Amino acid sequence: MRGLATHPAARGLADDCAVLDLGSESLVLTHDTLVEGIHFLPGQDPADVAWKLVATNLSDLAAKGAEPLGVLLGYQLGTDDPRFVAGLDEVLSHYGVSLLGGDTVGAAGPQVLGLTALGRATHRPVPSRAGSRHGDRIWITGPVGAALLGLEALQAGDGESTAYRRPQALLAQGWALAPFVTAMMDVSDGLLLDASRMALASCVTFAIEQASVPIATPEARRDDALRWGDDYQLLFTLPGNHESPVPANCIGIVHERGPAPLLLDGKPPSGKLGYEH
Amino acid sequence: MRGLATHPAARGLADDCAVLDLGSESLVLTHDTLVEGIHFLPGQDPADVAWKLVATNLSDLAAKGAEPLGVLLGYQLGTDDPRFVAGLDEVLSHYGVSLLGGDTVGAAGPQVLGLTALGRATHRPVPSRAGSRHGDRIWITGPVGAALLGLEALQAGDGESTAYRRPQALLAQGWALAPFVTAMMDVSDGLLLDASRMALASCVTFAIEQASVPIATPEARRDDALRWGDDYQLLFTLPGNHESPVPANCIGIVHERGPAPLLLDGKPPSGKLGYEH
């Protein structure tokens, strides 16, 4: 968050979620904005947009091992509001989450949709990006690249696009993992970029073996899959001798901090690592 | 919130704030969106916009007697982001509130800014709009119409515009009032409209005496002052024999529900009561 992140009060903006202790509970809070033409396609089904808006915020809670308490919506009226409401209904029911409040505005220009999700931590300390240690192993809950294929199918008007349109928030996996992980985050902007961020936050170097990363694309597009976002798998580290309590793939190991935060098959990857905001 | 308000999960949208019990605490949550050209003037000082965005949400918390815990910001980049940050810093420092998180997006079109404010109730049950009873007296914490004069001064480029640019959230008043009020809300959309909403929510009729309403405008503009918004005074009802624990003016009494929710000097007011979203 340019400019704002330098503000002493704005430290929370560097991470996806804020954690706030309140009485006997720890609250986990996240806010994301989707903009038409940037985060979703103009003309995309508003029901899918509603799904994505909610699911991506819940995914942030999943990465904190948090149980959702509800969401607040900042809704800019669009071309088919009833269809948005239908999708909102579907995603809220699917995750058993309440719409606690929000507001509606009319405005010209691309549709801007904001959502705040609120959860309670199921385990404390709440996992962050900053706990990976030398000797940990790096894990991911499932393949990357499915959303990339889904977007291409949607743009082509042909083929399976669910992974792009209706991402899943891995809440149950996050709850199961929270007591054991040394660090955790959801992969929203590309595996290489997000892994690099986690390594930087933890002051370590991540060494990832390309071939061990599960991908949803053909092998020829492995590199795209590792740099594409929107899959919302959980990326986490566990002490070296721990197995994952949920199905997951070990994709590398954590070293002491070297010259580069990320090594791919032993070398710093070149080019764009993912989707930079 | 058209469409959404009919959703069973969307009941919270009918009120300004959501209240959520969590452990030993009650959380109070509100989300408001400001749109350039609708809620603030194009070209208005971004520092003032930041102030208003935060203060209006904190005002919602004030009306619930809630103590702010922090805010989350959905920020669409504008023409002078450092100036926005300066105003944000100022308002957060003024109220001692933390920026917990949020995100930044770039988009064409008018600037859309969303803010979620989170607080903890200082008194339970948390005051709502729906508790006014026959025999209560109706109170307001201060004059209406100052923001109207401020807007006019700002548009004219001459005169005192602080009341419009930098509204105050009456947090201390809200905390002091919460244990005693039968209903409370902040006046954001015009006194007559908001009073009518409170009466409807409480299933009663409010009888307001025009002359007893404190106004910041000349007497000739009393009618404007009663219908204009943006002043963020607290409107509340107390049992008939109670005096207000904070400086406030008694402006009327509560009757059993009659044919109209609101009477002004004994008659239902005609015309537009305030700012309808």
From TrEMBL, chains A, B:
ATP binds at residues 102-103, 129, 188. It catalyses: thiamine phosphate + ATP = thiamine diphosphate + ADP. It is an enzyme of class 2 (transferase). Its EC number is 2.7.4.16. Residues 15-120 form the PurM-like N-terminal domain. Pathway: Cofactor biosynthesis; thiamine diphosphate biosynthesis; thiamine diphosphate from thiamine phosphate: step 1/1. InterPro entries: PurM-like_C_sf, PurM-like_N, PurM-like_N_sf, ThiL-like. It comes from the Bacteria. Catalyzes the ATP-dependent phosphorylation of thiamine-monophosphate (TMP) to form thiamine-pyrophosphate (TPP), the active form of vitamin B1. Belongs to the thiamine-monophosphate kinase family. This is Thiamine-monophosphate kinase. The lineage of its organism: Bacteria, Pseudomonadati, Pseudomonadota, Alphaproteobacteria, Sphingomonadales.
